[in-house]
Each structure stands twice: as structure tokens, then as C-alpha cells.
Amino acid sequence: MGYKNIAIGGLLAKKENTARFVTVRNESFLEKVTAEIRSKYPKDWLFLLGCFHSKRYALLKKYKIFGADFKGWIFNYKNPAEKRGRLIKHLEKIEEENFVKPLKTILSKNKFHNLDTDDAHEEFLELLKYKKKISKRLKNKEYDEKLNQLLQLEKNSEDELRAERFEEVNRFLHKKIYSLMKPKKLLVVSCSQRKKIEMNRMPAVEMYDGPMFRMIRKHKPFNYNGVDLLIVSAKYGLIRPTQQITNYDKRLSSDQIPTLQKKTLIKLEKFTKNENYNEVMLSMGKDYLCLFDGIDNVLPKKCVVKTTKGKIGQKLHSTKIWLSKK
Questions:
Q1: Cα separation, 160 vs 162, whole angstroms
Q2: Percentage of the chain surpassing pLDDT 70?
Q3: What phi, psi does 244 have (nearest 5°)?
Q4: Start-to-end C-alpha separation, the chain
Q5: Whether residue 114 is found in the same domain as residue 137
Q6: Structurally, how many domains does the chain consist of?
Q7: Order of all β-strands in the sheet with 67-68
Q8: What is the chain's mean pLDDT, rounded?
Q9: What pLDDT does 224 receive?
Q10: Which residues are 186's β-sheet partners?
Q11: Average pLDDT, stretch 217-235?
Q12: pLDDT score, position 295
């Protein structure tokens, strides 16, 4: 037939009494169809729609299937309205525990807090003002953290929300699918003093404009080839490259190191939990490198930690070579 890429569908059946859940019709049926198509197209690129599961990895390997997906990732994505709702409920719970009377609005009655009308948006802004007042009175770290997340969600533009959604789906695919097939690598770099001044707010990997970040943007070694990136800074701590940050000027002080070191290792453990990393590269100067003292205690035992040596140019060269190795 002359096809180079063949996607195989029709292998799923809808579960009874559910709106969106589907499952593979029959395991023997799945293998029979896959074997038949592979026998007719022995060299073509085959993709199984909706059939991926770790228990089928042997089958995918047996018939040299290029890839497969599954609908499960949809249920792991929380849209902005649902995130907004969860955060408001969480704040109200803390208020109740501290005997603070919550401000009841139309938003409080719904699980999904859509702001698709002027009235709903105005109510939401009033709610934020009220929460800010409570925050000053309570001085509760958990409350402040959730409120900041809510405020950040309000600031995000549609493009930023779209980018965040892509990153969320990407992380899910890495964790649940790609990492099962082969180990991944993690690169951790420090921030740069040089930043883009034409924009006040953008993803961290775009805002920082030192030599390391220009190399990273040029070669784009991340997302789908088994390499993840984290960035550490004096202002934001350890963050993902897609996190929105503002232009700032802050150096790492010696007084800040003990607290930031503890927070950095806690975040690193959270970021790497359930990830199939076999190698971590720390590419940064001595000032930031000390934040990772004790890194072996938070990483999987089989994970090898490497650090770049020498001056800035040598570190950059070593990082580039490390990224190019598969």
C-alpha cells in the first residue's frame, strides 16, 4: 500500500455505564490483530491507539511496535477551573480549622470555578481580596502557599495555561510511559545573572540568558529524548524550566544557604520521586553546588551523580557533551 506510518485503531471498547472509560476489547484479539498487520507490513512504523499498559510492553517489543498511547492521561489533567476550585476549598478548610468565617459566594458552591461571566470574575476578585486579608491575620504558611498558587493561576494568560497543560501532559507521558521503556537523565543548572529585559515575566528557561541557557535553548535536548531539566536560583529555589518567573536581581547569600539547601533537597526528592533517572548532572558554580550536599540521600540508589569541573567555558562544554550522549 506504500504507507510508512500505520496507526491501528478499533481495539478498544467502551466500559458499561461510564461516559469516557474504555478498555482493550480482548487481549488475544489485540495480539491477533497486531500480529496480522505486522506480518503484512514487516518494516512499517506501527502505533497502537489507546492500548498502552506496562503489562503489554513485552507484546509491543515482540511485534516491534514504535509506540502506543492510552486515554488515562486525560484523567490526570486538571483544567484551570478545577484547580481554582480545589485551591478555594483547601483555603476554606484552613479557615474553618482556625475559626475564620469563610466568604460564601456562588464559587464556593461549585466544584469547577469557571470565570466565563463578568459577575463570576468580579466575585472571584472580591474573594481574592478577602483571602489576602485573612492571610495577613492568620500568618499560616500552608494558607499563604495555596493563596499564592491561586493568585498565580489568576495571572496566567491563555498561552501560559496552554504551555502549563502541555508540560503537565509531557510529565505524565514521561513518568507513566517513556520512563518504563528506558532510563532518563536529569540536568540541574543554576540561574544566570543575565536575563532578558524586554519581558518582565516568562518561563525560567527563556528568562535566563547566560551562556548555559542559550546553549540549552539552541540544542533543545529536553522533552522527548529522555533528558529533564531543573533550575536552582536564590529567589525561586529549585524549579521546573517552564515555571513563570519575573525579572529580578538577587544573589545567593551565605545566610540563605542552610534554609535553601534543605528546601532544595526536599523539592529534588519530590521532583525525582517515581522517575526512572539513572544519571544526574549538576552544572553550576561552587556557591550553588553546596545546596546539593546530601543529594545521594534523596535520589534512587542506582542513580549516578556527576558534576562539571573547571571554569564557565569548561562547564558549558562538559554539559553539552553529556547532553549529546544517549
A1: 5
A2: 72
A3: -70, 130
A4: 34
A5: yes
A6: 3
A7: 5-8, 45-48, 67-68
A8: 81
A9: 46
A10: 228, 280
A11: 79
A12: 95
Give the C-alpha separation, 153 to 128, whole Å.
12
User: How far apart, in whole angstroms, are the C-alpha atoms of residue 83 and residue 34?
Assistant: 40
Say yes or no to pLDDT of 212 above 70: yes
- In this prediction, residue 287 carries a pLDDT of 93
Tell me the per-residue pLDDT of 7-42, one tens digit each, with 9 for 90 and over. 667 666 665 655 444 566 678 888 888 898 889 888
Residue 27 in 3-state DSSP?
Answer: helix
Distance, CA of 114 to CA of 96 (rounded, Å): 24
**Domain finish residue from 39, 72, 105:** 72
Q: Does any domain span residue 59?
A: yes
Helix (H, G, I), strand (E, B) or coil at 233: strand
HEC states along 291-321?
Answer: HHCCHHHCCCCCCEEEECCCCHHHHHHHHHH
Q: Are residues 136 and 186 in the same domain?
A: no
Are residues 314 and 190 both part of a single domain? yes
280 and 189 in one domain? yes
Parent domain of 134: 80-155
Is residue 132 domain-shared with residue 27, that is, in the same domain? no
Is there a single domain that holds both residue 304 and residue 223?
yes
Placement of cell 540561574 in the chain: 191
Q: What is the CATH number of the domain that holds 263?
A: 3.40.50.10630
Residues 77-81: what's their mean pLDDT? 68
284 and 312: one domain?
Answer: yes
Q: Where are the alpha helices (DSSP H) in the chain?
A: 27-40, 57-62, 80-97, 118-138, 141-155, 158-173, 179-181, 204-207, 211-219, 257-272, 286-289, 312-324
Whether 45 shows a pLDDT value over 50: the answer reads yes
3-state secondary structure 47-66: EECCCCCHHHHHHHHHCCCC
Which pLDDT value is given to residue 192?
A: 94
Paired strand residues for 14: 22
Q: What is the pTM for the complete model shown?
A: 0.57
More confident residue, 194 or 177: 194
Mean pLDDT of 158-168: 68
